[in-house]
Design a protein that fits this description.
CATH architecture: Beta Barrel
Order of helices and strands: EEEEE
CATH superfamily: Nucleic acid-binding proteins
Distance between the termini: 33 Å
CATH topology: OB fold (Dihydrolipoamide Acetyltransferase, E2P)
Shape: globular
Largest sheet: 5 strands, mixed, barrel
Strand content: 35-45%
């Protein structure tokens, strides 16, 4: 049975070559792959940066070798992560 949800996550890394990001999502059953085309374009660049806090609509099965995939990603302007914390 596949699961889905909406959670707050933190970008682990942006992979320009693969065209997406790995996002740590504590409420999901593992890290999440977010392809560039599911990132909301509220700026000119679709790229995310490590440590950036985002809201992720996620679903199983995963993609990019990870257990879950992002269906939609929105940048959070009201929260800031501390990389390495």
């Amino acid at each position: 049975m596949s699961r889905s949800g909406t959670s707050t996550g933190t970008v682990v890394r942006w992979d320009e070559e693969a065209g997406g990001a790995v996002i740590e999502v504590p409420d999901a059953p593992g890290d999440c792959w977010a392809a560039a085309d599911v990132v909301a374009r509220d700026t000119d660049s679709g790229a995310l940066r490590a440590g950036q806090v985002v809201t992720v609509d996620w679903a199983e099965p995963g993609d990019g070798g990870l257990p879950v995939r992002a269906v939609r990603v929105h940048r959070r302007q009201d929260l800031q992560a501390t990389p390495g914390a």
